[in-house]
Prior knowledge:
With 442 residues, this protein is of the alpha/beta class. The chain folds into 2 domains: 3-102, no CATH class; 131-429, Vaccinia Virus protein VP39 (Rossmann fold, 3-Layer(aba) Sandwich), CATH 3.40.50. 37% of the residues lie in helices and 15% in strands. It contains 16 helices and 11 strands. The strands form 2 sheets. A 7-stranded mixed β-sheet has the order 7-6-5-8-9-11-10. A 4-stranded mixed β-sheet has the order 2-1-3-4. Strand 8, helix 10 and strand 9 (280-293) form a beta-alpha-beta unit. Helix 7 packs across helix 8 and helix 13 runs antiparallel to helix 15. The N and C termini lie far apart (56 Å).
Amino acid sequence: MDLVQATTELFSSPARSFPVRLWDGTRLPPARDERLTGCVVLAHPRVLDGLLPPVSERRLAEAYLEGDLELEGDIAGLLEAAARWEGPQLRPSLAPAILSIVARRGLTREGASALAERLTGRLHSVARDRDAVRHHYDLSDAFYRLFLDRALVYSCAYFERGTESLEEAQQAKLELCCRKLALREGERLLDVGCGWGALLAWAAERHQVDGLGITLSEHQLEEARRRLARIPGREVKALALDYRRLVPDDRFHKAVSVGMMEHVGRENLDEYFSAVHRLLLPGGLFLNHAIADLTPGASTLPWASRGDGGFIQHDIFPDSDLVPLDLVIAAAGRAGFEVRDVESLREHYAETLAIWLARLEGRMGEAVSLVGGRVARAYRLYLASSIASFRLGRISVFQLLLAKPDAAGRARGVPRCRDDWCQRPLSAALPAAAAVAPAAGS
Length: 442
């Protein structure tokens, strides 16, 4: 049996709903047609190394980054279809043919991912967390501008009607965060992991609060400071600071963290929530927005192992940890917080990512010139696999509203009912002021 025949057997499954094309042009139509506009292309026999058990998510990702595996067309749809497949059908009779050819000189891929960050020091120490954050966020602001909105909001948007542009949906998310926090003029807001400063700028401009944003990213800090300096009449600033280094006597009425807790690590959750709790004044509110794992330890592709850490953690977000919601809530409770509301935005994030992916794919030439072909391909794969994971319910994103009750048990601004947050359409807050000032150079 030759290699093409053996590979054909590997993909012979009545559950396979995606087309496959081999390196010699052989086409393997899907066993059942879901009308996917795309094709999985095995561009080199070397890719078979990643399909032999135990199948590794990271080895398959490496094959894609090296160009041995191509995902043409609807990459997110292909990954969804692959996730519903049971995986390669390695029968005993196929093993000799595949192993003998894969073992030949020149077919085995050498080396680990060049993109992977070589971090040192204790996991989630202050220094290592700083290096992990900078590995991702300090890649290139110009690159992020290719696919994010003009304000560089790098987190889930909120599609209130489903017809909004990305810019409108991101502004709606910023407004929703502010309404949940019941911001009042003159209050002080702490933004933990403020990114490029969009939320803090929105809160200062639209809700007349003062505040502090902290980030470990040098690129984000520079842009956030430029943006906040343009806001008249408000005392808002950004600092390069770890949440564990905040001065306890610097107190805030409200706090928010959007897309930062993923970098904390579950072993540090108690310290994280306790730090914010100490900084809040009695009666204060804390809105924690973070991705959570709904299927702990599972890969986007159920038949591919993530025992070696997984592609996204290895190549994109080093040391990241998507903590299941129950563990997050338990840690918040131990810190003294009262849970006042939990909202899942899973479908909203899938839609956000789909727009980011389409924007990136539309400007891949520019992306390659900015960060190189391997990194650009890595981000395409990361965005697409995240879309598939959100759509399939493997991960979700939650907004958790927490209160630090005062001595009388009250919280500052919690409404009688949730409808108060959206009794006026969020879109009503968007006109006037291209809302958040656009990022420099956009």
